[in-house]
């Protein structure tokens, strides 16, 4: 298995060093570098020959904070998946951070073992929700959200709904293909159709769409 390449950005040097020290001992994980803030990160991305797969990013930093950094990364390096780790963890931030481009949002008090699992899950599926986050996202969806138009020509097909449900369960394209007995390429085709029909820009958007349109039940999610 190819190593998952990681960059860490946190203005608390001790936190950054502890994360680097722990993750460097984990099989299939490799820390490329650490940075003190968004500006420092951008400079290192400009000079590195190898981009990270995963960015562990603090939210509140001097100079360029985590929100600004996320916006820059998604605009310039959309292939990098961002896990925001913050002592300023609040569920009320969820909708904004996922819409901005974060793949996961977790508190700094999270256990190192769970963090390793989240890194792997985000690398494989593009997103990770903690147990309490789906309920919170339900509450953040506007009560004025329109009822689905069942006669719309952009209705999802049964197979697209099957794929969407498995995406929400954080299954990889390979796992979805094995479950539905279709090729990975076909899964990716259905996923592209889902983006086009729902208007979602990322996996988080698909999950929100599925929750909003009662396609998934919160208890069915593989959190």
Structural write-up:
- By secondary structure, this protein is α/β, with parallel strands linked by helices.
- It is 47% helix and 13% strand.
- The protein has a 5-stranded parallel beta sheet with strand order 2-1-3-4-5, with helices on both faces.
- α4 links the parallel β4 (81-86) and β5.
- The longest helix is centred in the C-terminal third of the chain and has 15 residues, at 184-198.
Overview in brief:
This protein has 223 residues and is of the alpha/beta class. It contains 10 helices and 5 strands; from the N terminus they run E-H-E-H-E-H-E-H-E-H-H-H-H-H-H.
Q: What is the fold's blueprint, element by element?
A:
Elements (H helix, E strand, L loop, with lengths): L3 E6 L3 H11 L5 E7 L2 H10 L6 E4 L8 H11 L4 E6 L7 H7 L1 E6 L4 H14 L7 H8 L17 H11 L4 H8 L3 H15 L4 H10 L11
Parallel strand pairs: 1-2, 1-3, 3-4, 4-5
Helix pairs in contact: 7-9, 7-10, 8-9
Task: List the secondary-structure elements in sequence, H or E.
Answer: EHEHEHEHEHHHHHH
| Beta-strand content estimate | 5-15%
Instruction: Please bin the fraction of helical residues.
Output: 40-55%
Mean pLDDT: 84
Q: Low-confidence parts, pLDDT < 50 over ≥5 residues?
A: none
Overall 3D form: globular
The total count of strands amounts to 5
Descriptive labels:
10 helices, globular, 223 residues, alpha/beta, five-stranded parallel beta sheet, single chain, 5 strands
